[in-house]
Design brief:
The structure is a single chain. This protein is of the alpha/beta class and about 210 residues long. The protein has a single domain, classed as 3-Layer(aba) Sandwich (Rossmann fold), CATH 3.40.50.880. Helices cover about 25% and strands about 30% of the residues. The protein is built from 5 helices and 12 strands. Strands 2-1-3-4-12-11-10-7-8 form a 9-stranded mixed β-sheet. Helix 1 links the parallel strand 1 and strand 2. The radius of gyration is 15 Å and the shape is globular. The termini are far apart. The relative contact order is 0.17.
């Protein structure tokens, strides 16, 4: 499966590309926003500032939003997760908007969240298949705040505050943690994404449960 990894000028792409290849993906790295849909799946990496990354995406924003809404598989990691939403308190530029909502600064007594944290994951979501009691590595000051609570497929406790740890709409997932830095469980999550993207089976869209 050919996976496009976006290089927006920040972050350690090497470890993420290595993890994707190890779990069965063919990886192409590009800085061209117009090439982001040239593969079977898209991965948005997780280090950098919101506006700087959003500016790199801007020339292809409408196409990206349409494709992800239509079911093109995507995994956004940390900042990449935040870019899936409409916008962020960290910046002024719009995000992709594939998952309606905003990115908020963590409302806790100590920011950023740094280190390992245990997740409560929604049963049945393929991203967490085979991962018992997931514990992942975080490094973040901001978190996703989707308009629809059903978009949250995993959350965690940080200093007494519940924070979204993973969000989903259709085949677009965002994770606030860094799976490429989270050992065997993180690699399993990447493998699960590769498998789900390869299967091409549309996932549930928040707000449509029970619809005829």
């Amino acid at each position: 499966m050919r996976t496009i990894l976006f290089d927006y000028g920040a972050g350690n792409l090497h470890s993420l590309a290595k993890a994707l290849r190890r779990e069965g993906a063919e990886v192409a790295i590009t800085a061209d926003p117009h090439a982001l849909l040239d593969g079977s799946a898209l991965v948005l990496p997780g280090v950098g500032a919101f506006d700087a990354a959003a500016a790199r995406l801007a020339p292809a924003l409408d196409d990206l939003r349409s494709a992800l809404t239509a079911g093109h598989p995507c995994l956004g990691i940390c900042l990449g997760m935040q870019l899936l939403l409409d916008g962020s308190e960290e910046g002024r530029l719009p995000g992709i908007g594939a998952i309606p909502g905003r990115v908020r600064r963590i409302r806790a007594r100590r920011v950023p969240q740094m280190g390992w944290n245990t997740l409560d994951a929604r049963a049945g979501d393929p991203l967490f298949e085979g991962i018992a009691s997931p514990c992942m590595y975080f490094a973040n000051s901001y978190v996703a705040d989707p308009d629809d609570p059903d978009a949250v497929v995993a959350d965690c406790d940080y200093l007494g505050v519940r924070l979204p740890a993973a969000v989903r709409s259709g085949n677009a997932w965002g994770v606030q943690f860094h799976p490429e830095k989270s050992g065997a469980q993180g690699l399993r999550l990447i493998r699960n994404f590769v498998a789900a993207a390869a299967a091409g089976i549309p996932g549930p869209t928040p707000g449509t449960r029970g619809a005829a």
